[in-house]
Amino acid sequence: MNLSKPYLTTRSLQPENQETPIQFIKNNIISERLFFRRNHFSYPNLTYSSYWLPVNGHVRNPQLFSLQNIMSLPSKALTVVLECAGNKRSFFEPKVFGEQWEKGAISQGVWKGVPLKTLLQLAHIKEGALEVVVEGYDVGKRTDTDKVYSYARSLPIEKALHEDTLVAYEYNGGPIPFKHGFPLRLIVPQWYGMASVKWVKQITIVNRAFSGPFQTVDYVYYPKKDSDEGATPVTTMRVNSSIKKPLDREILTTGVHEINGIAWTGKGLIVKVEISTDSGQTWTEVKLRNKDQYSWIDWSYDWEVAEKGEYTILSKATDSHGRVQRKEPYWNRKGYGYNGIDRIKVKVE
């Protein structure tokens, strides 16, 4: 191992959950080696040679696609950020159970594939279709039951028919890596990563609400600790930002230091990022770069500090829908959707 290069931070091994070292990555396209890994079960066993994708259910013309069929259809490539719904879970107060992700359950790259809409149109959806269920080959027992489940999620028909919801087969110009969903995975821009089902096994159109456990038990905001009152589904990413440099608890000298990071949203575009170097008493708007529709944006600020001491640095993003990163995150007992103002502390000597 080359110790001069960053590597993943392990959160669990069975199943494998690993975090991107986001603070040490300068590129906006994340390599396979450093793309975060989020799994509910062990990796599935499947082979390229026997792979077929059924599209069935509430349709007039069920389909069975080979990979060659899919790859011959009109395709598109999109740079998309994928964020685990549990990203930054470790920062919630009071603490919540689950993988204690810090800032690195987020990555992005270029995904190429066929719009899901194309496959659904070939199957001729019947009137009254409500949702599209996408099932993966990953399967196992949940911790809350002895039953065996495959990982499956549904999309509302409108989101499934969005022109940029993809059945992807390439990542960064090559086949999707096995650990990230080879040979096919769903890519749902602007939604948290749980919607982008890996190792797609089957697509089923239904005329009722899907009630699988990864839809109705997990990936639900429960605002109360001891009851399900007020529960709402996890869907669109919240507006968010992360400080990449300096590192939390870093020791600096007086002089000029670059503060930089990323910001992203599930609605519209990031239009403003502000930072504070005095614990939020005053805010300064910073420079933004690369305003792409589905990717994070880079931001930076040159901080001139003349006085020694300890400083709390904050970052706060605003999107084009007027959504602003919250002073206090929306607490929920499963720890999803953390988007509190990001903060680090540094010491200047």
UniProtKB/TrEMBL annotation:
Cofactor: Mo-molybdopterin
CDD domains with a match to the protein in the record: SO_family_Moco_dimer
Keyword annotations of the record: Metal-binding, Molybdenum, Oxidoreductase
A GO biological process held by the record: sulfur compound metabolic process
SUPFAM superfamilies the record matches: E set domains, Oxidoreductase molybdopterin-binding domain
One Gene Ontology MF term: molybdopterin cofactor binding
Domain of life: Bacteria
Domain Oxidoreductase molybdopterin-binding, residue spans: 40-212
Coiled-coil segments on the chain, per record: none
Residue span(s) of domain Moybdenum cofactor oxidoreductase dimerisation: 234-348
Pfam families membership: Mo-co_dimer, Oxidored_molyb
PANTHER family, A to Z: SULFITE OXIDASE, MITOCHONDRIAL (PTHR19372:SF7), SULFITE REDUCTASE (PTHR19372)
Protein known as: Sulfite oxidase
